[in-house]
Amino acid sequence: MNFETDGKIMKHSARFVFRIAALLATGLYAGRATRADINGLEGSDFRLTASAGTIVMPDGLSVHVWGFGPTDGNMQYPGPTLITTQGQLTQITLLNELPEPTSMVFPGMVNVVADGGVGTQQGLLALEALPGGTVSYSFTPRQPGTYLYYSGTRPDVQVEMGLLGALIVRPMDFDPLAPRAYQDNETAYDQEYLFLLSEMDPRIHEVVLRLGSAGLDGLDYLTDHQPQYWFINGRVGPDTFLPNNVPWLKHQPYGAMARTHPGERMLMRVVGGGRDVHPFHHHGNHARVIAKNGRLGTSASYEVFTIQTAPGETIDAIWTWTGQRLGWDAYGHAPGDPLEPGEYAPDHGKPIPVNLTELQDLAFGGFYSGDPFLGSLKSLPPGEGGLNQNGGFHFMWHSHTEKELVNNDIAPGGMMTMCIVEPHGVPID
Ligand SMILES: [Cu+2]
């Protein structure tokens, strides 16, 4: 990686100062986060429960799943995102409310010590909790980064059933006011999002609901695997657009819609949580991959327009949108107007090229944005409340395997979400 350390810090802090100033000016700073953080459990002493439940899909069907959840018995898919710190002794106690033994493994963590379970711990094989029993695991993360945890007990069945989640290790010098993914200024970021990619074949879940995992014995469920749902953070499109913790998705608490401001650095933590490879395509700009599997390195730094994740793989990337080389001013500025933070200066004040719209491209109704210019909020047609209340640019972020953009063959859906670039001054939390 090239380090323009001083310049980067200067730019980063200038952006940060501007953001605080903008938020103060709009009176929105008090009591509000200025940055999107990943939703999850923070700390070093976690208590989880494994239990069965049902997730609901936008096509009206539901799927029987097994999931990890906080100890109140509220299982979720994926399991809680566990956020700990490099060098911090981290303990996870698991209570098993499933009808079968289960366990947890933490690939990338070394010297994991298990206590209280049954079986033999060897390498990644973990001690298990019997039904009604508990087991605890402890380790001290040596390296920051993005990791996956999942069941180490019949993972062919239990990961499919939903027993997985993300583990995030913050660097030991983590500063929430100037966050970095690693101890490296090249990994500084303004916004942070998780994209945990997975899929499910509901036929397997149906068998397990009726007969337990023993019902799969003799069935060719490994090669005859036909997923019908493709998830980002445990939701399928369009539920991915919804905020965290909406009450009607009780067991799928995590949203997946990314929001940012022009010029800001967005940290994308992309996790391959299923058994298929998923090419995650982020429109709007390339992203710079900064780390793989929690390992930062020169050879891992390159630009992509699609992030490929193999099963079990994690990739951290930085994505920034400036409107660079659009050829017109995304803000609708006049030439004498001041530059916006993060604006691509050569296009400042250039008018948008006007092409008469083809009939099939006209979008009246809720998708009419009122004005194409970022930050300009002008009147909407009569009767319209508008769906784009903040005047942002929307980019579809999705699996580039097109068959994954459906829910049970109904399009659009599946592994799809949006990234919205909103004007500076619009708070993101
Ligand atoms: Cu696309």
Encode the helix/strand succession as letters: HEEEEEEEEHEEHEEEEEEEEEEE
Mean residue pLDDT:
85
Relative strand content = 25-35%
Class inferred from helices and paired strands: mainly beta
> Could you describe the largest sheet, including whether it forms a barrel?
7 strands, mixed
In DSSP terms, counting alpha (H) and pi (I) runs of 4 or more, how many helices? 3
Keywords:
429 residues; mainly beta; five-stranded mixed beta sheet; 3 helices; disordered N terminus; binds copper (II) ion
Please outline what is shown here.
The chain is mainly beta. The protein is built from 3 helices and 21 strands.
Task: Write up what this structure looks like.
The chain has 429 residues and is mainly β. Helices cover 9% and strands 28% of the residues. It has three helices and 21 strands. It has helices at 5-25, 155-161, 202-211, and strands at residues 41-42, 45-56, 62-70, 82-85, 90-96, 113-115, 134-139, 145-150, 164-170, 191-200, 229-232, 258-260, 266-272, 278-282, 287-292, 295-296, 302-304, 306-309, 314-319, 393-399, 416-421. The strands form four sheets. Strands 10, 11, 13, 15, 16, 17 and 19 form a seven-stranded mixed sheet that branches. The longest helix is centred in the N-terminal third of the chain and has 21 residues, at 5-25. It is globular. The relative contact order is 0.14. The site of copper (II) ion (CU) has 4 residues, from strand 20.
